[in-house]
Design goal:
10 helices; 75% helix; mainly alpha; 234 residues
């Protein structure tokens, strides 16, 4: 019988991604922020998570983490788009107050918006809409949620959402960390609660993956639209 997932497994999987991102990120610095290495650093992070996940899963006898996707799950994309839009409107006053110059609270968002080549932009969209949602849902609503066992649903939703939000601290703007955290963390906590709730309700990851994908899709479209198009819309 497979051994269950543990909190230690979760932290090792997260650490694997952080180490991989650090290694690939070093190439970004060496090659003066070359877009290819920036994209590779993003891919490397998620590849690191998945590699450690696979190694642990093999050692444990491949315990279940609820990975199941059905065709109807694509309908949840709309929920993710709506959630992104609703939170943007809800937190707009706070964002305008703490980041009055209109800068993004997340460094990775600024870096993505700065991509110039079409290939890099397409790769960034695929990462944001496919690779990131799948990997992060496996980690947070899969391994982490399963590791919390039979705790009350409200406790599971709160804990997984809090850890999910704190995980994204590493991507905030370093020169305005407190302001960025005040804007981003409450939003990501709400997202985490929603994703945990739908996972507990459906007992599989498919719906959460597509909600997460829809949430990222709207942000990716805004960030990666050509500047001249944004200016014409404005």
């Amino acid at each position: 019988m497979p051994r269950p997932w543990s909190i230690l497994d979760f932290f090792l999987i997260v650490l694997g991604g952080v180490l991989a991102a650090t290694i690939f990120g070093a190439f970004v610095v060496v090659f003066e922020d070359n877009e290819v290495f920036f994209v590779l650093a993003l891919i490397g992070q998620y590849a690191g998570h998945l590699l450690v996940l696979w190694l642990i899963a093999r050692r444990k006898g491949y315990p279940d983490f609820g990975f199941s996707v059905e065709g109807r799950d694509i309908l949840y994309l709309g929920s993710g788009l709506f959630l992104q839009l609703a939170l943007a409107v809800l937190f707009f006053p706070l964002t305008s107050l703490l980041l009055p110059e209109g800068d993004s609270a997340q460094q990775v968002a600024t870096d993505l918006a700065g991509l110039e080549t079409t290939a890099a932009r397409i790769a960034a969209v695929v990462i944001a809409v496919v690779l990131a949602p799948v990997t992060e849902e496996i980690i947070f609503r899969g391994v982490l949620l399963k590791s919390l066992g039979d705790r009350r649903p409200r406790v599971i939703m709160a804990l997984t959402a809090l850890i999910f939000a704190c995980f994204h601290l590493i991507g905030l703007q370093p020169d305005r960390m407190l302001q960025a955290a005040a804007v981003v963390l409450p939003q990501l906590f709400i997202v985490g609660v929603v994703l945990a709730w739908v996972t507990l309700r459906t007992k599989r990851l498919g719906p959460a993956i597509f909600i997460h994908s829809g949430f990222n899709l709207l942000a990716a479209i805004v960030l990666l639209l050509p500047p001249e198009l944004l200016e014409s819309v404005g």
